[in-house]
């Protein structure tokens, strides 16, 4: 099925008062996000982690130990193209400098506390960071081809309490830093030995990133953006922006910035088409209702027929899966270059919902397809290891006092 035309008239980007209100709201979100900041990349012994630094910061760090700025390119290549974790393996760098770098810096990776591989080859990593906090990362191989998606977490826990989501039952502990976000991808790649970074048309096993793990990435925008810029840098990992998808529950004020600054693909956790129901399932809807969310999708700069916005829709029996819901869904997204991922609900211990029946799933999908939208039913992967959508959760607890809920 092809998507609807991308040439339908698009509303203009916000102007005047609306734009300045959005800017104020964006500042508020960034200020709140800073309250949950990750620890710095400095180790107790005074060495600094080089992973997660922007190129400019890497240059500053090297200049600060008396090196010339041209070293940045060389070190960047070893960190992100070759993927080394030991300065002694940087063979184009003289041994005395290797030793000096090792005295001042480290090349960090999160520790894989557990690694579980499902019967369907999905692999779930529980990564432990330097302060002991943990987050989960899932690699989902494409069974037909040598490629796959890495589902990355952006926060430890989540503030949003979507009712179908196991992660939402875990309070937000803190944001993940850029090093920890890039580090999940790099450590997953270590596990598959996929270094140096494949170039050009060479197939990649870990070929796409989906920011769909624990947390709301647009509530940790600055760290996520920094990490994605590192991942996209053509002299390192070099993953194209077309191969990265950020999934949001609908943090409308940050969506425009994400589109214009990063230009990555967008997925929306929609899950309901009426505000009364979405207020309940995705409580963030009370702040940014469906109309505002859909308007932000219509003006999302990186969307086109070739790069459609994905609407994620979890199918909950008797709750959001009626034919009337399907018809309202296609009315809402008419004119947006979009596809709809229908996700059978994966029950988790204590969840209140049931998955839709196969018949209802098929009827819903048919209505969406008949309206011209691709609507694949996403088969749950890694169910036996609780790695499927909405099932991620760790035992990390919020320890610091005085943080807002
Ligand atoms: S679906 Fe995403 S935003 Fe909602 S509670 Fe789960 S992790 Fe948070």
UniProtKB/TrEMBL annotation:
Belongs to the radical SAM superfamily. RlmN family. Gene3D superfamilies: 1.10.150.530, Aldolase class I. GO terms for biological process: rRNA base methylation; tRNA methylation. The gene is rlmN. Reaction proceeds by a ping-pong mechanism involving intermediate methylation of a conserved cysteine residue. [4Fe-4S] cluster binds at residues 158, 162, 165. Residues 144-378 form the Radical SAM core domain. Its EC number is 2.1.1.192. The active site is at residues 136, 389. This is Dual-specificity RNA methyltransferase RlmN. Specifically methylates position 2 of adenine 2503 in 23S rRNA and position 2 of adenine 37 in tRNAs. m2A2503 modification seems to play a crucial role in the proofreading step occurring at the peptidyl transferase center and thus would serve to optimize ribosomal fidelity. Its cofactor is [4Fe-4S] cluster. Binds 1 [4Fe-4S] cluster. The cluster is coordinated with 3 cysteines and an exchangeable S-adenosyl-L-methionine. It catalyses: adenosine(37) in tRNA + 2 reduced [2Fe-2S]-[ferredoxin] + 2 S-adenosyl-L-methionine = 2-methyladenosine(37) in tRNA + 5'-deoxyadenosine + L-methionine + 2 oxidized [2Fe-2S]-[ferredoxin] + S-adenosyl-L-homocysteine; adenosine(2503) in 23S rRNA + 2 reduced [2Fe-2S]-[ferredoxin] + 2 S-adenosyl-L-methionine = 2-methyladenosine(2503) in 23S rRNA + 5'-deoxyadenosine + L-methionine + 2 oxidized [2Fe-2S]-[ferredoxin] + S-adenosyl-L-homocysteine. PROSITE patterns: RADICAL_SAM (PS51918). The keyword Methyltransferase applies. One of its GO terms (molecular function) is tRNA (adenine(37)-C2)-methyltransferase activity. It is an enzyme of class 2 (transferase). It comes from Gluconacetobacter sacchari. InterPro entries: Aldolase_TIM, Methyltransferase_A, RlmN_N, RNA_MTrfase_RlmN, rRNA_lsu_MTrfase_RlmN/Cfr, rSAM, rSAM_sf.
């Amino acid at each position: 099925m092809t998507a609807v035309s991308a040439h339908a008239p698009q509303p203009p980007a916000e102007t005047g008062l609306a734009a300045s209100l959005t800017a104020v709201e964006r500042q508020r979100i960034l200020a709140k996000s800073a309250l949950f900041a990750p620890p710095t990349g400095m180790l107790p012994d005074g060495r600094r982690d080089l992973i997660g630094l922007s190129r400019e910061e890497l240059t500053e760090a090297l200049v600060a130990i008396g090196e010339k700025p041209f070293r940045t390119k060389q070190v960047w290549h070893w960190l992100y193209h070759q993927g080394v974790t030991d300065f002694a393996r940087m063979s184009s760098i003289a041994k005395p400098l290797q030793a000096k770098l090792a005295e001042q810096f480290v090349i960090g990776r999160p520790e894989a506390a557990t690694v579980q591989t499902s019967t369907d080859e999905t692999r779930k990593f529980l990564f432990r960071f330097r302060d002991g906090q943990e987050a989960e990362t899932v690699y989902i191989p494409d069974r037909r081809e040598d490629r796959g998606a890495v589902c990355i977490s952006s926060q430890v826990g989540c503030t949003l309490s979507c009712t179908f989501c196991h992660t939402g039952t875990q309070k937000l502990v803190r944001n993940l830093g850029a090093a920890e976000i890039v580090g999940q991808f790099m450590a997953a790649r270590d596990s598959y030995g996929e270094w140096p970074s494949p170039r050009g048309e060479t197939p990649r096993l870990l070929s796409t990133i989906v920011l769909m793990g624990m947390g709301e990435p647009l509530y940790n925008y600055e760290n996520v953006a920094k990490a994605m810029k590192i991942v996209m840098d053509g002299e390192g990992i070099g993953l194209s922006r077309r191969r990265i998808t950020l999934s949001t529950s609908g943090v409308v004020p940050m969506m425009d910035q994400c589109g214009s600054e990063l230009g990555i693909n967008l997925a929306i956790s929609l899950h309901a088409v009426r505000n009364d129901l979405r207020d309940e399932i995705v409580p963030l809807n009370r702040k940014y209702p469906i109309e505002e969310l859909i308007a932000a999708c219509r003006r999302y700069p990186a969307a086109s027929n070739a790069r459609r916005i994905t609407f994620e829709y979890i199918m909950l029996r008797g709750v959001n899966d009626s034919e009337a819901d399907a018809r309202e869904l296609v009315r809402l997204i008419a004119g947006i270059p979009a596809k709809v991922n229908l996700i059978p609900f994966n029950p988790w211990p204590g969840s209140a919902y049931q998955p839709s029946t196969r018949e209802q799933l098929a009827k819903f999908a048919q209505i969406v397809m008949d309206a011209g939208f691709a609507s694949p039913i996403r088969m749950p992967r890694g169910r036996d290891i609780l790695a499927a959508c909405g099932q991620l959760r760790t035992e990390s607890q919020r320890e610091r006092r005085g943080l807002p809920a």
